[in-house]
Design goal:
It is a single chain. The chain is an alpha+beta fold. Helix content is about 35%, strand content about 25%. The protein has 15 helices and 15 strands. Helix 10 crosses helix 14 and helix 11 runs antiparallel to helix 12. The longest helix is centred in the middle third of the chain and has 17 residues. The protein starts with 15 loop residues before the first helix and ends with a strand.
């Protein structure tokens, strides 16, 4: 069950039944906002989830002693204390706020509350940076101000949210490093025109020089995918790089059935060489590739996998979301070289300093 703010819980598999359908209905297609992504990257970003009632006032948590707090009781009488009274006040405002099925402890929201995801990113300069995300809507300003008193940034705001928050007087920061790259599925599958001439040549080189096969990434092939992932990790280490998203990618493979992730795996002479893994988002109109790994030593392999997967997935996916470049110049150049048709823009929101 998801508790009332400021209490929170980790994002565990038991919450998928509630959160996955809600996240699937989000129209913006922000890659962070799938249950699988939140679950798999919660250790990196220290994600936790809470809920709060709409139209309720939340008083920012403070460091008052019990005696000080008692002396200010008149000031707090109409507020919701983040320390003790959030659940009581939320239930008072919305007595039919939520129901709990005792059999499986699944909470069902009734449309009168919002989910908040909190987290913490590390920073060598200033320690930990606390943030929050609001995938399902924007509460009133008093609630936002209270949240900003405890967190530095609202992350992953959509374009629509950014416009609303700008009108509310908040600072809007374009988060270019985290823009998702969107490509028309058909263009990635066909690679038409002179812009893709080099890509087609590399694919042709791979196809002409290798006896390859593509298979759906079913459970029986997961050991082969894990082998690819381990070789990818070793290659990074040999080149002086860290593990990247290795641990999240490993868990994604091991729990792909529970998370309903799907993909393809590729073989050369029966040796596993690459795989792609992802899921649908944006109300089922787009497919996001969360993980794509390959071994070294095959010219044109990455380009082949990119095109092959776009050719295999069903045509009702209009776009393929290949996520962000995280500010990595090499990755940015590679993603731009495929000529994205659009970006899923994201913004950081902060409270203006008076």
């Amino acid at each position: 069950m998801i508790p009332f703010y400021p209490q929170s819980v980790e994002i565990h598999l038991g919450l998928r039944e509630l959160l996955h359908p809600m996240l699937q209905k989000l129209p913006d297609g922000i890659s962070e906002f799938t249950f699988a992504n939140l679950y798999l990257f919660q250790k990196i970003h220290q994600y936790r989830v809470s809920r709060f009632a709409l139209n309720s006032s939340i008083l920012a948590k403070n460091s008052l002693t019990n005696k000080e707090a008692s002396s200010k009781s008149s000031y707090l009488s109409k507020k919701v204390s983040l320390e003790d009274n959030a659940e009581t006040e939320n239930k008072r405002i919305w007595p039919d706020l939520a129901t709990t099925n005792n059999e499986n402890e699944t909470m069902h929201l009734h449309g009168k509350e919002l989910i908040i995801i909190t987290g913490c990113d590390s920073s060598t300069a200033s320690g930990l940076k606390k943030f929050f995300m609001l995938p399902f809507g924007i509460p009133d300003k008093s609630v936002l101000d209270a949240l900003f008193s405890e967190h530095i940034t609202l992350k992953c705001a959509s374009q629509t949210q950014a416009d609303t928050l700008l009108d509310m007087g908040y600072e809007i920061i374009e988060d270019r490093d985290n823009f998702d790259y969107l490509y028309q599925r058909e263009r990635l599958a066909d690679l038409p025109g002179r812009h893709y001439h080099k890509k087609r040549n590399l694919i042709r080189a791979f196809v002409n020089n290798n006896n390859y096969e593509a298979r759906p990434l079913l459970e029986e092939y997961l050991p082969d995918a894990l082998e690819i992932l381990d070789k990818w990790r070793k290659n990074r280490a040999d080149n002086g790089n860290d593990d990247g998203d290795y641990h999240a990618a490993e868990e994604a493979l091991k729990k792909s059935e529970q998370l309903q992730l799907c993909g393809c795996i590729y073989y050369v002479e029966d040796e596993p060489v690459a795989y792609s893994l992802g899921e649908e988002l944006a109300c089922g109109t787009s497919f996001v590739i969360h993980f794509e790994k390959a071994v070294s030593g095959y010219k044109g392999l990455w380009q082949f996998v990119n095109q092959a997967f776009a050719s295999i997935i069903t045509e009702h996916y209009e776009t393929i979301n290949r996520e962000q470049d995280l500010g990595d110049e090499g990755l940015r150049h590679a993603k731009l070289s495929y000529h994205p048709t659009d970006f899923v823009k994201k913004y950081k929101i902060r409270k203006k300093i008076a």
